[in-house]
Every structure is written in structure tokens, then in C-alpha cells.
């Protein structure tokens, strides 16, 4: 018999509800026994889904932390800038925490959280879900085995599709650092920086430099005649690649949890409700060239590790196809693959006469970054919470385990890269 754990949802938004869903799939392993969220609508939705009583519904993380401990751990799915302020009192109240990324928005916050977790002796796992996707877990396993020798270079690329870019970083919640707390590099590609640091686990990143900016989504780049709201005053809407009608009405299932968040009070919003919302004050109805965004749309990062290994990340928003790729070069060979293809190639040096290299394809035969039977991020979402539950039960964590301590390097690279980009300097990384 496995010990059944209990958890509380803190921030009952899109992400926390995905992880909490593990309790419905595995009721023998996990029960959701409460929710904390200032939004009455979100508290009510969580209460209905997990059968919670009014006494199990709390108005904030702080209100929950003021009570005696109610569960084994909390799932903290608040927004970026709330991660540390909400987690500190919960750590003091004795909770272990499954915490969304980016787990801190500044280096000060990062160290504040790390010190608090050490002081209270609590476990924090960061939702670096891609470590749990079979593609990345299998590559990490090859690196641990030494299949390609010592890593001397890592190249990661993230292409953020045009519709994801527009919904997240131009019109949406992560479009201004002063509002959400994070840069685009941290809110989007902290996963990829974490994967780079994970491939080099145990070796400190020591230096970072970075360039980038907002190439496309600014008023000077607007097509001639563009209005300010697609469905209100735009004569070129029918020809526009970023029309809100095309992105959100013609693709009703795509990004609905962001675009229709303002209609949550309606049980089942109709097409007319949605069109009226885009014509009204819904931020997703705005022209992408005339928003209040201040984050980059592309950024490149160069990293140096203590053992001399180098790495690069290229994050480019506005691509036709979403795609993540990884290329590792080691002293004995290389690994190269595209996440969405669920396959990678292992090449070895082969100096025999008539040969140059030997090649083996590893095909994982699972979907890419799609919501499948195992949940989103190539199955990473639900595997991550499953691993956290097993770790708290005392079982051995998987190789993908994303403890706070093991997640510091990737975040320090990202925060350092943003400082390097904005100051035009090479930044040294202090890792303790
Ligand atoms: N791991 C991933 O791949 C991944 C993917 C997307 C988003 N994220 C991250 O997940 C986080 C959540 O994103 P989301 O879209 O689900 O957010 P959301 O806005 O849907 O949910 C956040 C919730 O937190 C609540 N909240 C605010 N202050 C609170 C407080 N003091 N106490 C308790 N609750 C409070 C809000 O009312 C809201 O319901 C973000 O940090 C985001 O960057 C991670």
C-alpha cells in the first residue's frame, strides 16, 4: 500500500489546475484538500472540481499560511511575481512546495527563497516540466552514461510560434516585465536554460552574455493603415496574419484559457460573447503592433561553464512552427534532435578507413509539446507531479527531479543574461 498524500492549490489558475488533476487520475496517491485564491470564481471552480467545503477555501496564500498546516504540500501556481512572496510564509508554515517557473524574478528573490527553504528544511520542486518529457529525459540519460564523452558545447534553440508569441508576450500576461515580473527569456525560455544547466549538472555556469530586442511588435512595424483593435477599427484585418479573429475565433480551442479568462463568469460563453469581448476591453483584441509590450521578441545567450564548456540559447518569437531543438557536442560524439519530432540522433567519431562517423537514431514515438494522455509538454506535466509525490513518500526521485537547489543554475544564467543584454556587458555568475 502506498501512502496517500494531500495537497492544497495556491493560485487556482490554468497551471495549478493541470497539476492538481493528478489527484483525479490517481485518487489512491493524492487528494486535493483545499484551495487559496483571491478570485471567488477560481475558488468556486476548484471547489466544484475537487469537492471542497467552504472551510477548505481560503482567500490567499497568506491566509492559508496563518492556519495550522492543512496538507503535505502545496501546488503554487500563482503568477511569476507572486511566487516568492506567496512561498515564504508557506515554507514557514511547514509546507513542501511544487512551485511554478520562473520561481523568482530577481537574484535577490532567488537567494531569499533558497535560504528560506534551507532554514525551514522544506523541499521545493520547480515545474521544469520538460525534464520529464521522454525526449529530454532520454538525452540526459545518454549524457549521464557518458555516451558522447565530456560535453564541450550545448546548443539550444526555441522557436516560439507567431500565435504563441502574440498571445503570451505581445497581447498577454507576460508582455511587460513591470507587470508580470519576468522578461520573455525568463518566462518562456527558463526551461531551455534549465535544460542546458541540467545537461551540465554539477558544473557551475560562470559567465554569460546576451543580445536581443523587440524586432517586430512595435508601432513602427505596423502595416500601413492598421487600426488599434482588430474587430473595431482595422481596415486591413482580413489580410493580417495576427488578426484576433483568425487567432482566437477561427481557432476556438487555441489559448482559450488566456483569451477568455475575462469571460469566466459566464458558464459557457457563446460566439457572440467572445466577439463582443474582443471588440470591448479584452486585451487579446488589440493590434499586435500597437500594444503596451516591452519584452523582447528574440534573444541570444552565450554561456561559459567552469570546466570550459560553452553553450548558446537562441530564443526567437514569431516563427511559423513551434520548435525546440538541442545539439550536444562531446569529446566522443554528439546528440542532436528536435523535441517535437520525439527523436534524436547519436553520432560517434569513427576514424576507421572509409568511415567518418557512426549514427544511431533514437525514436521515442510520443507526441511533442501537445496535450496527450500524459498531459502537456510531451507528457512532462503529470510525470512531474507524480515524481514529486513519490519523492515526498520517501521513494528515490527520478533523474528529472527538479529540486530548487538543482534549478538555481538555469535561473542564474537567465537573470544574468538579462542583465548582460540590458547593460551590454559580460556578466559573472555567482552560484552561492
Ligand atoms: N511549467 C510551464 O511550462 C508553464 C507554462 C505556462 C505557465 N507557467 C507559469 O505558471 C504560472 C501560472 O500561470 P497561469 O497562467 O496558470 O496563471 P493564472 O493567472 O491563470 O493563475 C494565477 C492564480 O493565482 C491567483 N493568485 C494571485 N495572488 C494570489 C495569492 N496571494 N494567493 C493565492 N493565489 C493568488 C490568481 O487569482 C490566479 O487565479 C506562471 O508563473 C507561469 O509563468 C508555467
Q: Mind telling me the CATH class of the largest domain?
A: Alpha Beta
Low-pLDDT stretches are 368-373
Return the average pLDDT rounded to an integer: 95
CATH homology-level superfamily of the largest domain: Dihydrodipicolinate Reductase, domain 2
CATH architecture of the largest domain: 2-Layer Sandwich
Domain module tally: 3
Order the strands across the largest sheet as they lie in space. Answer: 14-13-12-11-7-10-9-8-15
Helix content: 25-40%
Instruction: Let me know the largest β-sheet.
Output: 9 strands, mixed
Approximate strand percentage: 15-25%
Principal-axes shape call? globular
CATH topology of the largest domain: Dihydrodipicolinate Reductase, domain 2
Number of strands: 15
Distance between the termini: 40 Å
Bound small-molecule species: nicotinamide-adenine-dinucleotide
Roughly how many Å is the radius of gyration? 22 Å
Amino acid at each position: 500500500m502506498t501512502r496517500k498524500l494531500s495537497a492544497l492549490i495556491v493560485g487556482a489558475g490554468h497551471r495549478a489546475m493541470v497539476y492538481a488533476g493528478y489527484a483525479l487520475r490517481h485518487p489512491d496517491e493524492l487528494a486535493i484538500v483545499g484551495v487559496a485564491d483571491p478570485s471567488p470564481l477560481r475558488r468556486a471552480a476548484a471547489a466544484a472540481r475537487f469537492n471542497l467545503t467552504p472551510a477548505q477555501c481560503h482567500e490567499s496564500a497568506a491566509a492559508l499560511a496563518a492556519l495550522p498546516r492543512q496538507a503535505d504540500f502545496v501546488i503554487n501556481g500563482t503568477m511569476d511575481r507572486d511566487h516568492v512572496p506567496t512561498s515564504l510564509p508557506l515554507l514557514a508554515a511547514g509546507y513542501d512546495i511544487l512551485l511554478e517557473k520562473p520561481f523568482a524574478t530577481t537574484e535577490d528573490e532567488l537567494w531569499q527563497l533558497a535560504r528560506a527553504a534551507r532554514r525551514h528544511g522544506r523541499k521545493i520542486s520547480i515545474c521544469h516540466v520538460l525534464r520529464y518529457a521522454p525526449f529530454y529525459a532520454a538525452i540526459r540519460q545518454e549524457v549521464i552514461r557518458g555516451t558522447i564523452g565530456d560535453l564541450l558545447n550545448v546548443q539550444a534553440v526555441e522557436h516560439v510560434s507567431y500565435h504563441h508569441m502574440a498571445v503570451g508576450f505581445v497581447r498577454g500576461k507576460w508582455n511587460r516585465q513591470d507587470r508580470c515580473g519576468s522578461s520573455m527569456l525568463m518566462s518562456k525560455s527558463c526551461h531551455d536554460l534549465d535544460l542546458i544547466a541540467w545537461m551540465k549538472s554539477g558544473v557551475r555556469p560562470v559567465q554569460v552574455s546576451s543580445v536581443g530586442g523587440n524586432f517586430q511588435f512595435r508601432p513602427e512595424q505596423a502595416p500601413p493603415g492598421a487600426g488599434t483593435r482588430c474587430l473595431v477599427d482595422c481596415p486591413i484585418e482580413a489580410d493580417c496574419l495576427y488578426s484576433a479573429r483568425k487567432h482566437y475565433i477561427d481557432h476556438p480551442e487555441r489559448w482559450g484559457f488566456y483569451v477568455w479568462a475575462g469571460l469566466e463568469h459566464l458558464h459557457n460563453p457563446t460566439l457572440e460573447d467572445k466577439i463582443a469581448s474582443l471588440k470591448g476591453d479584452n486585451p487579446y483584441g488589440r493590434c499586435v503592433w500597437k500594444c503596451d509590450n516591452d519584452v523582447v521578441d528574440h534573444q541570444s545567450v552565450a554561456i561559459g561553464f567552469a570546466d570550459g564548456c560553452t553553450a548558446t540559447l537562441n530564443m526567437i518569437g514569431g516563427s511559423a512552427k513551434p520548435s525546440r531543438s538541442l545539439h550536444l557536442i562531446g569529446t566522443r560524439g554528439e546528440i542532436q534532435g528536435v523535441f517535437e519530432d520525439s527523436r534524436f540522433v547519436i553520432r560517434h567519431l569513427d576514424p576507421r578507413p572509409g568511415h567518418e562517423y557512426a549514427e544511431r537514431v533514437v525514436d521515442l514515438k510520443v507526441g511533442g509539446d501537445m496535450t496527450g494522455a500524459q498531459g502537456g509538454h510531451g507528457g512532462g506535466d503529470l510525470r512531474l507531479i507524480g515524481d514529486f509525490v513519490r519523492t515526498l513518500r520517501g521513494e528515490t526521485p527520478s533523474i528529472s527531479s527538479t529540486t530548487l537547489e538543482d534549478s538555481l543554475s538555469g535561473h542564474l544564467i537567465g537573470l544574468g543574461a538579462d542583465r548582460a543584454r540590458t547593460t551590454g556587458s559580460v556578466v559573472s555568475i555567482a552560484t552561492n
